[in-house]
Design brief:
There is one protein chain. This protein has about 90 residues and is α+β, with helices and mostly antiparallel strands. It has 3 helices and 4 strands. A 4-stranded mixed β-sheet has the order 3-2-1-4. The longest helix is centred in the C-terminal third of the chain and has 10 residues. The radius of gyration is 14 Å and the shape is globular.
Length: about 90
Amino acid sequence: MSEGHVAFEYEAKNVSAETLATLGEGHIAYVKQIRSEDVPGLFPEAPKIAPGLKLFALHAADGTPIMLTDSREAAVANAWSNELQAVSVH
């Protein structure tokens, strides 16, 4: 495995949802592409955003939203600046 990448291999039937939620807590964050229509549910304090935009959300390992941006690179940079290893989810 190359430096900067994290890989987890588990059989889904052996890992509870609770275990997955705490995996990497405090050290791992994930970047997920979202639609602007999803913003109010994840970031209720965010200003109104035009519909139809592709955005990127950085979440803590437990799913807590951390930040919202219009570029994946900015989300990853924010993770790194907070000493978090960023991984992508699809």
